[in-house]
User: Fold this.
Amino acid sequence: MHEGQQEQRTLAVFIDFENLALGFDDKKKGRKPNNGHFDIQKVLGRLVEKGKVVVKTAYADWHRFFKEREALHEAGIELIEIPRRGKSGKNSADIRLCVDAIDLCYSKEHIDTFVIISGDSDFAPLVSKLKENGKAVIGLGLKESTSDLLSENCDEFIYYEDLEEELEKDVTTDQKAEASLPKELREIFDLLFSSIRAIIRENHEILWSSMVKDTMKRKRPSFSESLYGYKSFSELLEDAQRRGFIKLEKNPRSGTYVVVGFTDRMK
Assistant:
């Protein structure tokens, strides 16, 4: 692997939407304040920070979740219809999700990371089997409806509520910083800031400029610094430093930029 090149993970995402719906129903009954619905864009925004998402599938009796289907469809999620038949409906969805995940595990060797979006303890054996086959497993679910058996068995578990809180905090900080920017540059700087934070969250020791650009491209495939008047990506980073947002250093061997971190105004 070349200097600054990031080993890109390949992700498959499986969503147990029935379980999520139950969790959000509990919140609507007053257990804790919440925006009342599952925002798939927030979830995918976090997952593309980790690698390339190549499979996105959700399972439910979609006649019961008509309003939610549109947002999931627009996000490129394949919706698998599992009709509910008394008590067996939910179990049928669980079984179908497990079968599809195991099939993918054996048939697509290039997929190295599986994401299980659910809090159901029934998926713990699936997680164990995927790990047994050398796959990394990330779980995501609501705090109050997630089983400890599931969360502790995953390589990483993300709580949806924590994800929301992090995003709200970052957006507030970035909006204050971007207020000093021309309107036409706010979009690209917002993408730059969120991408740098993503790499920091993933605990990379060195934030190579190429890693930052790769993350920006995953978050927004149409990204090009030239659309905002920059001749190169290095010029964008230099502008961000000049405006007091980030700190840069040059690698003495290659001469490429390394992002040292944010300035105090961004913390």
